[in-house]
């Protein structure tokens, strides 16, 4: 019996390893870009392993080992930007998309300081403790509208999928985060002032109720999306 349950545990960890994912491309005007062309190649491009330390430098773009060069692709303000997954967002969890405006050429922009604002999120749906569902789960593409009022210019776009299947301890069975930075040039933008602005890393401690959470039992009665409010322009 013990042997069987440890076999089951091994099988479960293997299946969760192959169920990991990256977000290597963007979808602009319905056209998917080639992998790792407009997205900075992440350290996990071939392992698909998540970031687990939300305070690490790699929590920003996860590219410390790849020294990536990416190309910047145009997108019109007010149009739809898709972010493609190489698998599906297999695990239960939530999504945040952040952007940061480069002062000049985004290719040489690191994203230091309080420069990031949230443009999109997909949270959990709760029902007072009888059920919790995850609308982001199993998506192959995350699509949002680039705010009309976003000033024209070059931006990093940072995808963040927070997997919460084993998120109940800090530094143990913890949240797994899958993320990247893409490079876009927003055209035809407006004169909005995006905010609130946060630093990444810095935006989370890892102790947020939406990151340090047992999603299975008791069923959470409510869910607090990590990070600032969405700026929709
Ligand atoms: C931005 O920098 C990259 C890399 O140095 C260069 O290839 C690209 O032409 C620059 N883009 C603009 C719009 O200046
Ligand atoms: C649910 O709401 C309570 C009261 O505001 C809060 O303390 C708790 O952290 C929330 N739970 C989650 C998982 O967000």
From TrEMBL:
Q: What is the residue range of the signal peptide feature?
A: 1-19
Q: Provide the cofactor list for this protein.
A: Cu(2+)
**Which top EC class is named for this enzyme in its record?**
oxidoreductase
Q: Where is the Auxiliary Activity family 9 catalytic domain?
A: 20-220
Taxonomic superkingdom: Eukaryota
Q: What's a single GO CC term here?
A: extracellular region
Q: Does the keyword Transferase apply?
A: no
- Give the E.C. number(s): 1.14.99.56
Q: Which GO terms describe its molecular function?
A: metal ion binding; monooxygenase activity
Pfam families found in the cross-reference section: AA9
Listed under catalytic activity are: [(1->4)-beta-D-glucosyl]n+m + reduced acceptor + O2 = 4-dehydro-beta-D-glucosyl-[(1->4)-beta-D-glucosyl]n-1 + [(1->4)-beta-D-glucosyl]m + acceptor + H2O
Family named by the database record: Belongs to the polysaccharide monooxygenase AA9 family.
What is this protein identified as?
Answer: lytic cellulose monooxygenase (C4-dehydrogenating)
Q: Which organism is it from?
A: Sphaerobolus stellatus (strain SS14)
């Amino acid at each position: 019996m013990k042997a069987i349950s440890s076999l089951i545990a091994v099988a479960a960890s293997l299946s969760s390893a192959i169920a990991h994912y990256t977000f290597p491309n963007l979808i602009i005007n319905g056209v998917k870009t080639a992998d790792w062309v407009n997205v900075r190649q992440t350290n996990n491009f071939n392992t698909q392993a998540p970031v687990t330390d939300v305070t690490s430098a790699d929590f920003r773009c996860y590219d410390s080992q790849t020294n990536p060069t990416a190309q910047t692709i145009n997108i019109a303000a007010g149009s739809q930007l898709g972010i493609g997954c190489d698998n599906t967002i297999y695990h239960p969890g939530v999504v945040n998309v952040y952007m940061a405006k480069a002062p000049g050429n985004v290719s040489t922009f690191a994203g230091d300081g309080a420069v990031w604002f949230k443009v999109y999120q997909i949270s959990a749906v709760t029902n007072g403790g009888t059920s919790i569902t995850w609308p982001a789960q199993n998506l192959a593409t995350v699509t949002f509208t680039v705010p009309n009022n976003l000033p024209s210019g070059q931006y990093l776009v940072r995808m963040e999928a927070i997997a919460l299947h084993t998120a109940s301890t800090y530094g143990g069975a913890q949240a797994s985060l899958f993320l990247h930075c893409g490079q876009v040039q927003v055209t035809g933008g407006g004169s909005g002032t995006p905010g609130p602005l946060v630093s990444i890393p810095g935006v989370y401690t890892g102790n947020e109720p939406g990151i340090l959470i047992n999603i299975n039992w008791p069923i959470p009665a409510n869910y607090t999306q990590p990070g600032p409010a969405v700026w929709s322009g």
